[in-house]
Specification:
By secondary structure, the protein is mainly alpha-helical. It has 15 helices and four strands. It starts with 5 loop residues before the first strand and ends in a 6-residue tail after the last helix. 39% of the residues are buried.
Length: 290
């Protein structure tokens, strides 16, 4: 294994303290003090990139989270060998696509919406939401997906002064999600097919529905390619799964022409855009992607 290793950070004891303190302080105040603060390095990019709100904007999500149920899920994750499985998956990822330097992996209770993240920021990391993991068998795909994001964050965003969400267009997000989706499929030895891509993105619905809507989805992405990823755009393209599917189809097309997923992952955003954007535009055309 590479000398560069991940630092796994488990947030189970802190969440138990949060639950205990919530009895007297209330869920929101307890969460802010005993959970957000020690793990701000993981939560702050979520505020900035995904939710695009100030801290108080997270209150509805925290209040809606069933603390006891989340703790039970986190404890099951640990007792079932989830930590060891994450570590093993990362070791395999590092062999085929080495990172630039060590990185933290936050295994903590999230807000009930995301299984994992590796968001643009100054301190690249991977987040796995323990309350959202229902099957350890799905961890390999999840970890590989987020690891691919981490590699690009380390290379292209960690030292950029303009990494903020207002500067990252939908097209760039689309290709990033496409790379991560294809990397996770190849890493788990699955065929890179439209059907497997759709199955990897549950929010897309059925295979038939997604395939039938491919042209319109591609046209929508192409029309908003240079639009900044505002919260509205994040919901429209990222949370819906559209960016994952269209980006993955474009990346798969490049691989059909001989490109390698690891080399594409190391390709800077501008060069990748030049390669892949025409594929998305082709998907949106009457002829469709060849």
């Amino acid at each position: 294994m590479s000398s560069v290793e991940p630092e796994l950070i488990l947030g189970l004891d802190e969440f138990r303290s949060c639950i205990h303190e919530a009895v007297s302080r209330g869920k929101w105040d307890a969460w802010k003090r005993t959970y957000f603060k020690p793990f701000q390095a993981a939560f702050q990019p979520m505020l900035d990139v995904l939710y695009q709100v100030e801290l108080d904007g997270l209150r509805p999500y925290v209040e809606a989270l069933d603390f006891d149920k989340a703790l039970a899920a986190a404890e099951w994750f640990v007792e079932s060998g989830g930590v060891e499985r994450v570590r093993a998956c990362l070791e395999r990822c590092i062999v085929v696509l080495p990172p630039m330097h060590s990185f933290p992996v936050y295994l903590i209770v999230g807000l009930g919406h995301a299984h994992g993240m590796a968001l643009p920021g100054e301190a690249p990391y991977i987040f796995i939401g323990l309350e959202s993991v229902e099957c350890l068998g799905a961890l390999d795909e999840l970890v590989a997906h987020e690891y691919n994001h981490l590699i690009r964050v380390q290379r292209f965003y960690a030292h950029r002064s303009d990494w903020s969400i207002e500067r990252i267009p939908i097209g760039e997000f689309t290709l990033s999600e496409g790379l991560a989706t294809i990397f996770s499929l190849t890493h788990t030895h699955q065929a890179v097919s439209s059907e497997h891509i759709i199955e990897a993105v549950p929010s897309l619905g059925s295979v038939k529905e997604a395939l039938g809507g491919e042209r319109s989805m591609a046209a929508d992405v192409a029309a908003h390619w240079e639009q900044p990823a505002t919260r509205e755009m994040v919901v429209r393209f990222i949370e819906s799964g559209v960016a994952y599917y269209i980006g993955a189809r474009a990346i798969a097309s490049l691989m059909d022409d001989g490109h390698d997923i690891c080399s594409l992952t190391r390709t800077d955003p501008f060069a990748l855009d030049a390669l892949a954007r025409p594929r998305v535009e082709e998907m949106a055309s009457e002829l469709g992607l060849r």
